[in-house]
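Feature request, filed as a ticket because there's no other form

It would be nice if the structure record came with a short human-readable summary line next to the tokens. Right now we just get the raw output. Example of a typical job, pasted below so the devs can see what we mean:
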Amino acid sequence: MTIAYIFGAAFVGVMVSGSMSAAETSTAHRLPSALAVEAASEAVAACAKQGFHETAVVVDADGVTIVALRGDGTGAHTLDSAYDKAYTAASFKNDTLALAERAKGEDSIAPLSKLPHVMFFGGGVAIKLADETIGAIGAAGAPGAKLDDGCSRAGLEKIRDRLE
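Raw output as currently delivered:
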């Protein structure tokens, strides 16, 4: 080893550790599981009142499932669909109805739907605290994306005033 190599490696090490110690940590808010259960329950109940068999999945900001609730009479596929909608909303930090619109046209994001668990179809709603996405709720089973979206929104409305 040459002196220049040793000095260069030491210099890089000091720079990296120096910049690491000066870095600030971020504070992330978490969606409590009790609120996630309430949101999922309300989404399923809101659709049931309309005569739809619905599944709701609530994920955290990273897209990890907090709760999944499969309503009475729902198809097995709704578990995957509701999860994918929630995951997509959390991952893209946006509602899937809006993302579905962005998947159309000249600057389409549609190619991203080839990624695992990404679904540009209504029913996924981001759960936000100010501008921070802290989770998402996905609903599947109603006969249409806008109906699924409405059920997810009902779940979010149930807990919105208690998000902190």
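Something like this underneath would help us a lot:
The longest strand covers residues 132-140.
The chain has one domain: 33-162.
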